[in-house]
Design goal:
- The complex is a heterodimer of chains A (366) and B (456).
- Chain A has 366 residues and is of the alpha+beta class.
- Chain A folds into 2 domains: 3-15 and 186-351, Aldehyde oxidase/xanthine dehydrogenase, molybdopterin binding domain (Aldehyde Oxidoreductase, domain 4, 2-Layer Sandwich); 25-164, Aldehyde oxidase/xanthine dehydrogenase, molybdopterin binding domain (Aldehyde Oxidoreductase, domain 4), CATH 3.30.365.
- Chain A is built from 7 helices and 13 strands.
- In chain A, the strands form 4 sheets. Chain A has a 4-stranded mixed beta sheet with strand order 1-9-10-11. Chain A has a 4-stranded mixed beta sheet with strand order 4-3-2-8. A 3-stranded antiparallel beta sheet of chain A has the order 5-6-7.
- The longest helix of chain A is centred in the first third of the chain and has 28 residues, at 90-117.
- Chain B has 456 residues and is α+β, with helices and mostly antiparallel strands.
- Chain B folds into 2 domains: 22-126 and 190-280, Aldehyde oxidase/xanthine dehydrogenase, a/b hammerhead (Aldehyde Oxidoreductase, domain 3, Alpha-Beta Complex); 155-187 and 284-446, Aldehyde Oxidoreductase, domain 4.
- Chain B contains 12 helices and 15 strands.
- Chain B has helices at 13-18, 53-56, 110-119, 168-174, 217-228, 255-265, 275-280, 320-329, 363-380, 384-391, 410-420, 427-430, and strands spanning 33-39, 45-51, 61-65, 94-95, 101-107, 121-126, 161-165, 177-183, 197-202, 208-212, 235-238, 269-272, 288-296, 302-314, 339-348.
- In chain B, the strands form 3 sheets. In chain B, strands 3-5-1-12-9-10-11 form a 7-stranded mixed beta sheet, with helices on both faces. A 5-stranded mixed beta sheet of chain B has the order 7-15-14-13-8.
- Chain B is globular and about 80 Å long.
- In chain B, 59% of the residues are buried.
- The chains are: A alpha+beta (366), B alpha+beta (456).
- Chains A and B meet through β1, α1, β9, β10 and α4 of A and β7, β8, α5, β11 and α7 of B.
- β13 (345-347) of chain A pairs parallel with β8 of chain B, so a sheet runs across the interface.
Chain lengths: 366, 456
């Protein structure tokens, strides 16, 4: 019996926004009489940080401090359409909706300020809650005073709406899957290196370290990104070595019905993690951002499977990589089994292929 | 200070950390009734009798609903895209998975609701279920779904999602090696701490306020409005803060039945799934079956890929056709492969319908493709970084469906991982970039796939 160590890598990509697009998000913003900003967005926060990210985008786009922002996504009477929080779309697609709404609000603030200051709005700038003349920065007026003037002097409401939609992209040829424009927003990229140890007597796999690199386009909030990367990695670890809704798949028997009998990762499984954030700005995301929420659990299973092979010389291609599967693969290997080699063909896993179990689809006849 | 780029704390972090954030189950409405479901005890069966009369007369019971009480019984997750619906809100003639809801009771207490559920008279005639997606094409197999064993409504009534690019036959002819493998990631639970839960409150003006844990307020509002055949202004969804979703809370599992019960009883109704229901009756990530056959050269080029995907949808389609299409668009992973032959099927089985989960459609293919890349590297005796860098997507390369990549970062993230792990790349590979292919990076077999349009 021995503990064997192994190392493996994986490299992945993942699209932002719904596949084939067609998923709108909308937002509207109003300014209170003291300049404070109310954002109404339909984006649900499922723990991904939508409220924070969208507030950050609004603050910088208008040019006011972050703590001036109130974010309301609480109901459909006051908030406009957001297709939903899925498809890694909240930062990118919904982020663009609030960005556009914030741009309109900024324009309106400059117009009202221009009226008050008797300067063309084109000659005004706005930063950190103050409007000022570009060529004479001491001529300035707070956004609070601008909003008060709009309310009490001019009888106006400073508001702005924004919407973002990449129109639906149909498949133009169903025999080839061809499309004629990009079927999603930006693509994000990531790579993962896993270090594992495998007990070759018990079959247990322990993930020791995950080193991960993500091209996020632009890190709007690095702390929340690290949360996505590390939280996602634990879900990937669960998928890789622990979790299974159907322990005797394809049978539906012996399903776990509670936390005590379902093997989800816990803090005891937490490996060392090293995160590398790369910022190659996307062409059209808000501040260059892409979305990485979902892909954060995609790279680990293959990196871990490769590391297990590096450690003990067997490929486990049915997830999760349980002790039973590792031991069965080690037994098969010591029994001399391996891929079928014939001419230039190297055929792995034939025993679990459709042609080994079913009869109706002549898939492997090559 | 600029907000973008700053490590600002979560907007709702203090509330979450101190337990003061109000989630759906924290909402109290005076006079709330509690809902419980009659669920199928069978994997697959015909319902031969369903009688709720006794249950309706039980103490504390204020409303009982079955399929007959739903104005539009079937409304699909993808109906808005013109894809036909297949799943009844409440089972009508048959049940196709264990746990499928058949009838709902609203009563003064959960105990009274549970007692009434037990009093519903229902008989079944069990049928032979199908569980193994690999048997879906067998001649004598049991049909788990009225559409058969596979989803038949891709464009032009195709029974699969197909990708074809270049010539797979030529790739196999030209290959030095043809390497195949089979990859089967499991179903797993989204496992949110907050189980599926909804409170629907009938308002004096005839509207319904629906406190929902949905990940998509407007999508779910559309689903409820469609089932009830009422305009959107009769509904107000309240939510936006979810106690864990991971994809499973796009399903709109509770909102419509709560609102139907609220309409019938004139009282607020809450349906809070138990932990056991969340595990056994809520949708899971799909199990996938993927077979990859790669045509490769001895020096590490991937000339072609033939791939078969069987997506275990469970008993109804839900988002599965979308998931398989997304999967097909990404079946080359982060690499450029000029000759492709992909067939992806949505296969019906008699398990709980599967649905979206983080990475939907692509998590599976990332595992298959990257495990396979590692195997190919080993078979060819090539460094795993070099194999990946060589075939990495670059600007101007085209995707499986023919779209040019504008800003691919496969090379950049591989370089970052190489450096962070202390790996030393050969000079040529250390100098690789995302820029358009040229010279040794542009072998003849990649010429035809490159887009000649200018890309930024």
């Amino acid at each position: 019996m021995a503990i064997q160590k192994g190392h493996g890598i994986a490299s992945i990509e993942y699209p932002t926004g719904m596949n084939q697009n067609g998923d709108p998000s909308q937002a509207w913003i109003k300014v209170k009489p003291d300049g404070r900003i109310d954002v109404f967005s339909g984006t649900t926060d499922i723990g991904n940080g939508s409220k924070t990210i969208q507030s950050q985008i609004v603050a910088d786009t208008i040019g006011v401090p972050y703590d001036w922002i109130t974010f309301d996504n609480s109901n459909t009477d006051s908030s406009p359409v957001c297709t939903g929080t899925f498809a890694s779309r909240a930062t990118f697609v919904a982020g663009k909706a609030v960005l556009k709404a914030a741009q309109r609000v900024r324009e309106r603030i400059l117009e009202v300020a221009g009226q008050e200051m008797e300067i063309s709005p084109d000659d005004l700038d706005l930063d950190d809650g103050d409007v000022f003349a570009k060529d004479a920065p001491t001529r300035r007026m707070s956004v609070g005073d601008v909003a008060a003037a709009a309310t009490w002097t001019y009888g106006e409401l400073i508001t702005g709406t924004g919407a973002h939609l990449n129109p639906y992209v149909p498949i133009v040829d169903s025999s080839t899957g061809e499309v004629d424009s990009p079927p999603h927003a930006a693509i994000s990229y990531a790579a993962c290196a896993a270090d594992v140890e495998v007990n070759d007597e018990t079959g247990e796999v322990r993930v020791l370290r995950l080193i991960q690199a993500y091209d996020v386009g632009r890190a709007i909030n690095p702390a929340l990104l690290e949360g996505q990367i590390e939280g996602g990695a634990m879900m990937g670890l669960g998928l890789g070595v622990l979790e299974d809704s159907y322990p005797y798949y394809p049978s539906v028997d012996n399903r776990a019905g509670d936390f005590g009998s379902y093997y989800a990762p816990s803090s005891a499984d937490l490996p060392e993690m090293v995160n590398v954030i790369i910022e190659n700005p996307s062409v059209d995301g808000p501040y260059g951002a892409k979305g990485i929420g979902e892909m954060a659990n995609n790279a680990q299973p293959a990196a871990i499977a490769t590391a297990v092979h590096d450690a003990v010389g067997v490929w486990v291609t049915e997830l999760p990589i349980t002790p039973e599967r590792v031991l069965a693969a080690l037994d098969a290997k010591s029994g001399g089994s391996g891929p079928r080699r014939e001419g230039k063909h190297v055929a792995y896993d034939e025993e679990i292929s459709i042609n080994a179990v079913g009869t109706g689809l002549a898939w492997r006849a090559d | 200070m600029k907000a973008v780029g700053a490590r600002l704390p979560r907007y709702d972090g203090v509330g979450h950390a101190t337990g003061r954030t109000a989630f759906v189950d924290d909402i109290r409405a005076h006079g709330t009734l509690w809902a419980k479901a009659l669920r199928s005890p069978h994997d697959y069966a015909t319902i031969t009798r369903l009688d709720t009369t006794a249950a309706e007369n039980m103490p504390g019971v204020r409303a009982v609903i079955t399929h007959a009480d739903v104005p539009l019984l079937e409304y699909g997750h993808l109906s808005a895209l013109g894809i036909p619906a297949d799943e009844p809100l409440l089972a009508k003639d048959e049940v196709r998975y264990k746990g499928q809801p058949i009838a709902l009771v609203a009563a003064e207490t959960t105990e009274q609701a549970a007692d009434a559920v037990a009093a519903i008279e229902v008989d079944f005639a069990p049928k032979t279920p199908l569980f193994d997606v690999r048997k879906a094409f067998d001649a004598d197999v049991s049909q788990p779904h009225h559409w058969g064993t596979v989803y038949p409504h891709f464009e032009e009534s195709m029974d699969r999602r197909q990708i074809r690019k270049g010539s797979i036959e030529k790739a196999f002819d030209d290959a030095d090696k043809i390497i195949s493998g089979v990859y089967r990631p499991a179903a797993i639970e989204q496992m949110p701490i907050e189980t599926q839960v909804c409170l629907s409150v009938p308002e004096p003006d005839g509207r319904f306020t629906i406190y929902s844990c949905t990940q998509a307020l407007y999508f779910s509002m559309g689903v409820v409005a469609a089932h009830m055949q009422i305009p959107l202004n009769r509904l107000k969804f309240v939510g936006g803060t979810v106690g864990g979703g991971f994809g499973g809370k796009v399903d709109t599992a509770t909102e419509t039945v709560c609102t139907l019960l609220a309409q019938r009883s004139g009282r607020p109704v809450k349906w809070r799934w138990t932990r056991e229901e969340e595990f056994l009756c809520s949708s899971t990530r799909a199990p996938w079956h993927m077979e990859i056959i790669d045509a490769v050269t001895d020096d590490g080029w991937i000339l072609g890929r033939k791939m078969l995907t069987l997506h275990d949808a469970g008993a109804y389609a839900r988002f599965s056709p979308y998931g398989v299409t997304k999967h097909s668009f990404h079946h080359t992973g982060a690499y450029t492969i000029p000759n492709l032959h992909f067939d992806g099927y949505v296969v019906f089985t008699n398990r709980v319908p599967t649905t979206a989960m983080r990475g939907y459609g692509v998590t599976s293919v990332s595992f298959a493709v990257e495990s396979h890349m590692s195997r190919v590297a080993e078979e060819l005796g090539i460094d795993p970084f070099e194999l990946r860098l060589k075939n990495a997507n670059r600007i101007g390369d085209t995707s499986p469906n023919g779209i040019a990549y504008t800003d691919p970062s496969t090379v950049d993230v591989l370089h970052a991982i190489s450096e962070a792990t202390g790996n030393e790349l050969a000079p040529g590979y250390a100098a690789a970039s995302r820029q358009r292919r040229a010279g040794e990076w542009l072998p003849d077999h990649l010429l035809a796939q490159i887009s000649d349009t200018e890309v930024h």
